[in-house]
Predict the 3D structure of the following.
Amino acid sequence: MWSLIRRYPLGFMLAVVIHLAVVALMVFGLDWLHPPKPRTSEVEIVQAKLVDAEKLRRAEEEKRKAEERKRLEAEKRRRLELERKRRLEEKKRREAEAKRRAERERKKKAEAERRRKEEARKKAEAERRRKEAERKAREAELAAQLQAEKDARERASVTAAIKRKVQNSWLRPPTVAGQDLQAKVRVRLSETGSVLVVQVVESSGNGAFDRSVEAAVYKADPLPMPSSPRLISEFRDFTFIFRPSGK
Amino acid sequence: MNGELSFLQLVLDASPLVQLVMASLLLASVLSWTAIFERSRTLRRAAREAEEFEERFWSGVDLGDLYRGLERRREDLTGMAAVFHAGFREFARLKETAGMDPMAVIEGTRRAMRVAMSREMDSLEQYLSFLATVGSTSPYVGLFGTVWGIMNSFHALGNVKQATLNLVAPGIAEALIATAMGLFAAIPAVVAYNKFADRVQRLEGRYEDFAEEFANILQRQVHLLGGEG
């Protein structure tokens, strides 16, 4: 260790100085090792006084009386206050009662008014409903009429088309030339219009003519059908009179 | 100061063993601070010298000139310069020897540099072990003093009929001073030790890098000469 000190004496000196400083700080700087000084307290001095007993008694009496008076006064004040309060309360109560009654009256009126209004409203509603129903019925009637007209038109047009088609496929048999003949035919069709059964229900009197009409109907298969389903069912089974057109 | 409880009084009133412990701790602290100052200076100087030498070395100066310049003051060469000196001297000697294998020349140079470096490391690490010792043992020494002092004060307590705090408190206070001193010595020593160990390691790394680079330069030169011959 001497070599260390010899190598750098300045460092050694510095170290010693540091330690001396620290020790000095410990010794002189820190007072925490002192016991705290006990603090002496000042004594308060009280002086005694001589008092006359009679005077004291009288003063006491006086004091008692004054207190009594004060008490009575206070009692009276309290009672008055109470009375005032009671009256005030009564008034308040009455006011509240009146208010309540008015309120009830008002409510009743409002209720009656409300009921009246309700009734009026109901009446108006019923009237409105009745009118609505009438209007609807009228409309329905109109619509039915319209529908019927439309149906009639369609029926006529379909019938005409069927007749035309049968007419076109009819071949005049050679034996009936020049005669004015007609036959009533019942035709049953499928939904799509194909011919199922053809039957002459009223003969013309000429067998060849009857057969030629039947053949024409079969040949015209499929017959035109109306577009509305209601009419289709009508056309599933119908009867018509065949009369050759003038050619 | 009212005498009976002052710091100085406490220390002077302590038992001889505790006083001895305190004295040794104080000495250790002083010495460790001396070592701290000394190492700090030495390591700083070594780092600065290494920097300067590297600068000179890489400035493109002729290595022979550099060697001759160092040869004049070879007794007090330190650090990188010493490594360089040892390596170059060995290299020059081996090159003079006739019929030497170039690899053997480089190997020998490396060895010489390694030896010089190890010597340098040794001188850099001097006193660090002392710091480590102070750092690790002085808390124990202080603790020993404390335990001893408390033992004494309790022993004294056993002899009286009425135990009061006044009787034990000074003894414990004086005993605790020993622990405080131990810590006071240990903390700077540990901090300084860690710091210096790190610095020494960095310096060692620098020396090694330098030695390797220098060896590379010499190897190139050897091969150049061999090619000519």
Q: What stands out?
A: Chain A touches chain B through 20 residues (CB under 8 Å). The radius of gyration of chain A is 67 Å. Residues 53-169 of chain A form the longest helix (117 residues). Strands of chain A lie at 183-189, 195-202, 237-242.
